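Re: that chain you flagged

S.,

Sorry for the slow reply, it's been a week of failed gels. I finally had a moment to sit down with the sequence you sent. For the record, here it is as I used it:
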Amino acid sequence: MNISFDNTVELIEKKSKFIGYKLSCKSSKEVEEALEKLKKEHKKATHICYAYSLKSPFLEKAVDDGEPSSTAGRPILSVLQKKKLGDICVFVVRYFGGIKLGAGGLVRAYTKVASEVLK
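Prediction finished late last night. Pasting the structure tokens below so you have them in one place:
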């Protein structure tokens, strides 16, 4: 399957680079394929966090990929839920810039990237 992303955005927060990707998808298999594609493209990335919401069968998942618990995947998922979106996955690739953002900073950064990529 050829995975193509609907939209991408980039955000720099305290020297960390966050790259958001929006994927329209119908299955968790598509999400896994897109994740593999991103892992190949961004070999040096510190984290690839994501969340998705599928309509039928209804399924939601949030993944922090090594970020502190509930500071990455959860905020992305909550943006999808607030916008009442389904069959959508948002990935955020993070390159750590050397300055720790703290839990609040991470939540704000991941939320902002997810909101921007969905515009």
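What I noticed first: The CA atoms of residues 7 and 22 lie 5 Å apart.

Talk soon,
D.
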